[in-house]
Write a structure and sequence with these properties.
Structural class: alpha+beta
Shape: globular
Number of helices: 3
Helix content: 10-25%
Distance between the termini: 21 Å
Radius of gyration: 15 Å
Strand content: 25-35%
Strand order of the largest sheet: 6-7-8-9-14-13-12-11
Number of strands: 14
């Protein structure tokens, strides 16, 4: 797990638990999900996405898509590997062996955010875990928003529904969310 460094900032190491990275990407967005500013979820897909290694901003990571039902998630990924991290109105299911995390809304039982720290998953441009910030910017352009998370960790948000987390100049996680939704 992570530890607090000097000044109370979180210190991240590449060996830290995936749960910490998932929480970093998902917690603050969950707190805002019920405030009515988030766009509605798309209808559940009629056909499950392919089981590939593609990150599609605003849509999916591999075989899990935004808007799919909890039944579809269960069919695509099986049961999560640990107890879910509970929030007021959602649950974060982690698939540790896949270094994958999925947030399901309690009211709709639909996926609204997906995150991965697995370097097998890449965008169509080739952006994924392990690359440098310069490589990310060369392939995706400048982010629409940047947030300094402290301890040399940054969140880069693209309005098309992609968040990239970088620590010590390397991508450590990518997540997708509804375009126009909350990035954090």
């Amino acid at each position: 797990m992570s530890a607090l460094g000097e000044g109370g900032h979180m210190r991240f190491q590449m060996s830290d638990s995936f749960h910490v990275l998932a929480a970093l990407a998902l917690c603050s967005g969950l707190l805002l999900s019920g405030c009515g500013s988030a766009p509605p979820l798309p209808a559940p897909p009629k056909v499950l996405p392919p089981d590939d290694s593609l990150i599609v901003p605003g849509s999916r990571i591999g075989s899990v898509a935004i808007g799919m039902t909890s039944k579809q998630l269960l069919k695509a990924k099986g049961s999560s590997s640990s107890s879910p991290m509970r929030y007021t109105d959602a649950a974060n299911y982690s698939y540790d062996q896949l270094r994958y995390s999925v947030v399901v809304d309690d009211a709709t039982q639909q996926v609204w955010r997906i995150a991965t720290s697995d370097d097998r998953y890449r965008t169509a441009e080739g952006v994924g875990v392990g690359q440098t910030e310069l490589e990310m910017r060369a392939d995706l352009g400048n982010p629409d928003q940047t947030k300094d998370m402290g301890s040399d960790t940054f969140q880069y948000c693209y309005d098309k529904g992609l968040a990239i987390y970088i620590a010590q100049n390397k991508i450590i996680q990518a997540s997708v969310f509804i375009p126009g939704g909350v990035c954090e």
